[in-house]
Structures are given as structure tokens and as C-alpha cells.
Design brief:
It contains 23 helices and 14 strands. With 526 residues, the protein is of the alpha/beta class. Helix 5 links the parallel strand 2 and strand 3. The protein is elongated and about 90 Å long.
Length: 526
């Protein structure tokens, strides 16, 4: 097996166009928020979330059963830790096709590395975990993946109706199995690792997005450390939390407004517009009309009924604002790892915790990275864009070639051509025949095409041609998206095999704020 070596470079978020506009990351990077944001640091007291709803024995039973069902059995050490004083480091995501964009894998890597660092400073067991948001319903987010520049989309067969969209965890993929495997076979390079990737995917269950997602994570991270949490499986534990939320909904709405106003006072836009609750009916996620719910509660109180009589058969699904609170209420979470938007709304909901008497987990940004292979690094060096200048490549390509100092012989050709067009316009200034417009336009088009070719030839001789720039922009911004938001992990695993993941667990420093460039080198190179 051809060995590789990974090397990392950290770039400030302010130098990355896609992150420079993210005020939260910039403020965290510069320590501008002081203690206002619940950011975890190595100096943070190791206090996990806590509430009256925490039941370790029931939590252990659910996690043991679920992880066993998807081929990721928990060890006795993990089980004992859940039952005793174990504390969780959690990240989460919807179950994307073939694990979705690589930022999902970066979340997993973040919790694994962070857990190991914290464990070295804690007497209590630290448990890395991943929350699979199987009850979410953003089908258009999970049904596609990009490998080797090609995109696979698994279309949903039925009609999508607003407010009654299927939970992604219930959507089967059996009918897509052949097309997924065919896609992989066609886009993966003919490397020594192709069969390994094909076998991993082929051996997965295609029962649903969430089952396939969980199965893949279990196979990719075989250390036995990662605990997988399925949102739907935790509904029995979350139900009392949500029923309490319903009972004090007005207070929660006031707290939500307080959190929104607090964010605005710091100069942030609020990512969440409202406080929502859903109900799962026939495997579809339906938004609940909370005014009707409150009316039913009042009627129940008037008739001496109980809320249990009204809601006992319901299967609740928390919206984004309540999801993290439910997590922290039923799981002893020390740190929640999230992306920039997640961190902002998780901060926005801080006042809601007091209403439900839940102690919140600390927050921490996930690792953010762009992976650069040797050939891309070489092209970027020729363009003088390496390292963080590569993030301007898309803008440069859109404005290519820009202002260029051409050699004298090329300049003289352009001067002569421009003079010819000027003379034609002068000679035929009056009584201009119609055919002359066509000739002039055609001549101008061909001359401009010639200038472009001469410019590109000159730049290409210096390694700065359009083809090289397209190569850089295509790697950093595939399909015009930042790489981590578009490219799937199997794009790299098909080329470099399991050693790629193994090394990623060793090269990142989660406490080094910024966007990381990961250079992929052949072992032995400088």
C-alpha cells in the first residue's frame, strides 16, 4: 500500500471568504466574547449537563440496544461508564447519503480527539458520541453526495407536502442500492483501495438513511470508542421533557425572545426565527399548532382530565431550539460540538434552559478543513496562492485573466488589431452599410479570442493558465461550494484507504482556532 503523510496548516477564519462573514467564528477566534459565550476550554470546570430527566439505566438500555442493532456493540467499559459517572462529548447531523459532505466526518473526528484530550484531565469516563438526527426532514440535504466531481442524487419517490415531510430516518434506500454501488464503481479511481470501499458500502444495510449512515460510521471508526445515538430511539426519554415544555410554552417563548434579543445586542443575526415542536404521524414530521395545544390543555384542566389523557399516544419531535435541550436533559453531556450556525442558535436558546431546569452543556466549534493533494498544491504555488490564497481561486477564475503584462510582441499584435478596428470605424463613419456591422463584430470577436488565447498561452508558460486555475478552484470549491460542504469522505478513502482516516485522528488540534489546510503528501516528501 502506497503510504501517505498528512501535514496541517492553520488559516485564520478571517482569511477564508466563506467564513470571514461569520461574525461568531471571528469573535471566538479573537476572544472578543470573553465569558458571554458558553465556550468550552481546558480551563472550563468539567460539569456536564444535568436535569431531573436523566435516567442512566434507561439511557444505557437504549444505547446498548441501538448500537448492537446497527453493528456497533458497546463494550462493558462503555456500558459501565454510562451507568455510573460517564460524561459525553456529542456532535450531531442528519444521516446523509454515504455520510454526506465531509464536514460530518470532521464532526466525528472532533468529538473523538476532544474526548481523548479531556479524558487525560478527567477522573470520570469521557464518552465520544454522535447524535444521528433521524427525525429531521430535510430530504434535499441528505439525498445527495459528491465524489470525484460527480454528484449522486437519490430522488424521493412520493410527493413532498409542506409541514408533513417524512423523517429521513424512515425513508428506505433498498431501491437505491444498485444505483449507489454503480455510482461508486464508476467514480472511484482504479486504486488498490477501491474494492475495500465497495465492500464497506455493499455490506451496509440499506434499510433507511439512518441505518445506512450508522452502519457506515461504525465500519469507518472501528476503534469501539464512538457511541451512536439515534434521535428516534430516545423519544421515550425525551417525552417528559417535551411535555414539561408544552406546559410552560409561554415561558419558553419569552425565554426564546430573550435569547434572540441577546444575540442582536451582540450584533448577530438570529438563526432561529421561532420556537417549534413537531409530531411524528405515519412516519411523517408534522408541525404542531401550539395555540391549539394550549387550548386543549386548558380544556383538560377545566374538565379535570390530565395532559397524559391528551398526549399519551403522541410521538413528539423537538424543533431545532428544543433539540439540544432535550439532548442535555436526558444525556449527561459535557461538550456539544457544532458548526458555526449550530453554535449560534445553541447560544440563542440559552435562556430556555432555566425554564426547564436543565443545566446546559458547553459548546465547541467542530474542526474545519480543506484537503489539498500534491498536484493542487503545485498549481497553487505556481499561482502564488498557497496556502490561504487558494480560497480566492474561484473569484480569480471568474475574473480571469484580469490585468496581465504581456510580452512586447503580444502587445504589438493587440495594438495593431485595435488600430484596425478603429480605422474601419473611421472610414465607414458615415453612410455605414449594414454588412459592415457584421464584419466588424466578427472581426472584433476573433481578435478578442486571439488576445485571450495569447494571454492564456503566456500565463500557461508560467504555470498560471486557466486550466491550472480551474484545477485549484475545482478542488477548493467543487460545484462552487467550499470543499468540506460538498465532497464526500469516500472521495479520499477511495484514493488513500483507511490510513487517511487513521492519520486524521492524529494531525488535528481542535483548540487551534481557524480553518485547517490538510496537505496530502506521499510519505517521504518534504
Amino acid at each position: 500500500m502506497k503510504a501517505i503523510k498528512l501535514k496541517t496548516l492553520s488559516c485564520p477564519y478571517r482569511n477564508i471568504p466563506d467564513y470571514a462573514a461569520n461574525k461568531l467564528l471571528i469573535d471566538l477566534e479573537s476572544n472578543a466574547l470573553n465569558k458571554s459565550f458558553p465556550l468550552f476550554s481546558l480551563n472550563t470546570p468539567l460539569l456536564s449537563s444535568h436535569s431531573e430527566f436523566l435516567n442512566r439505566s434507561e439511557l444505557a438500555e437504549i444505547l446498548i440496544s441501538y448500537n448492537k442493532s446497527i453493528g456497533n456493540p458497546l463494550s462493558k467499559i462503555q456500558t459501565d461508564a454510562i451507568l455510573s459517572s460517564g460524561r459525553f462529548i456529542v456532535a450531531g447531523q442528519q444521516p446523509g447519503l454515504l455520510t454526506g459532505p465531509i464536514y460530518t466526518i470532521l464532526k466525528v473526528i472532533s468529538v473523538l480527539i476532544l474526548s481523548e484530550i479531556i479524558q487525560s484531565k478527567s477522573d470520570d469516563p469521557i464518552l465520544p458520541a454522535f447524535w444521528i438526527a433521524s427525525e429531521d426532514h430535510d430530504i434535499l440535504e441528505v439525498n445527495r453526495c459528491t465524489i470525484s466531481g460527480q454528484q449522486l442524487i437519490c430522488n424521493y419517490r412520493d410527493t413532498l407536502e409542506t409541514d408533513t415531510i417524512p423523517c429521513v430516518g424512515f425513508i428506505p434506500l433498498d431501491n437505491c442500492r444498485d444505483s449507489i454501488l454503480k455510482f461508486l464503481s464508476s467514480v472511484l479511481p482504479a486504486s488498490e483501495h477501491k474494492d475495500w470501499v465497495m465492500s464497506i458500502v455493499a455490506e451496509c444495510s440499506f434499510e433507511s438513511y439512518s441505518v445506512m449512515f450508522a452502519s457506515l460510521l461504525g465500519k469507518l471508526f472501528k476503534s469501539g470508542k464512538l457511541i451512536l445515538i439515534d434521535a428516534v430511539s430516545l423519544h421515550p426519554l425525551m417525552k417528559p421533557v417535551i411535555e414539561k415544555a408544552i406546559a410552560c410554552w409561554s415561558d419558553l417563548e419569552n425565554a426564546f425572545n430573550e435569547g434572540s434579543n441577546s444575540l442582536k445586542s451582540y450584533g448577530y443575526d438570529t438563526p432561529l426565527e421561532s420556537l417549534n415542536l413537531f409530531e411524528i404521524v405515519d412516519k411523517k414530521r408534522c408541525k404542531m399548532d401550539m395555540s391549539k395545544v394550549q387550548k386543549n390543555i386548558k380544556q383538560a384542566e377545566f374538565s379535570n382530565s390530565t395532559c397524559d389523557d391528551i398526549f399519551d399516544s403522541r410521538q413528539y419531535s423537538p424543533g431545532a431550539a428544543l433539540r439540544l435541550i432535550c439532548q442535555d436533559a436526558v444525556i449527561p453531556v459535557l461538550v456539544t460540538v457544532g458548526g458555526p450556525t449550530e453554535l449560534l442558535y445553541q447560544w440563542q436558546i440559552s435562556p430556555l434552559y432555566n425554564v426547564l431546569s436543565v443545566r446546559r452543556s458547553a459548546l465547541f466549534p467542530r474542526i474545519s478543513a480543506t484537503f489539498i493533494e500534491d498536484r493542487i498544491r503545485h498549481s497553487a504555488n505556481c499561482w502564488n496562492l498557497y496556502p490561504d490564497g487558494i480560497f480566492t481561486s474561484l473569484e480569480l477564475l471568474e475574473n480571469y485573466p484580469g490585468t496581465v503584462d504581456l510580452p512586447d510582441e503580444y502587445q504589438s499584435i493587440k495594438i495593431s488589431g485595435d488600430r484596425l478596428i478603429t480605422e474601419i470605424r473611421h472610414v465607414f463613419k458615415d453612410d455605414r452599410p449594414p454588412w459592415m456591422n457584421k464584419i466588424e463584430n466578427s472581426l472584433s470577436y476573433q481578435l478578442n479570442k486571439l488576445y485571450g488565447r495569447l494571454t492564456d498561452e503566456h500565463l500557461s508558460s508560467q504555470g498560471k493558465g486557466r486550466a491550472e486555475l480551474e484545477k485549484i478552484a475545482g478542488a477548493v470549491y467543487p460545484r462552487r461550494n467550499l470543499q468540506e460542504r460538498e465532497v464526500n469522505i469516500f472521495h479520499f478513502l477511495g484514493r488513500y484507504g483507511p490510513q487517511f482516516l487513521d492519520q486524521l485522528l492524529d494531525v488535528f488540534d481542535p483548540f487551534l482556532f481557524g480553518h485547517t489546510i490538510v496537505e496530502i503528501k506521499n510519505d517521504g516528501e518534504d
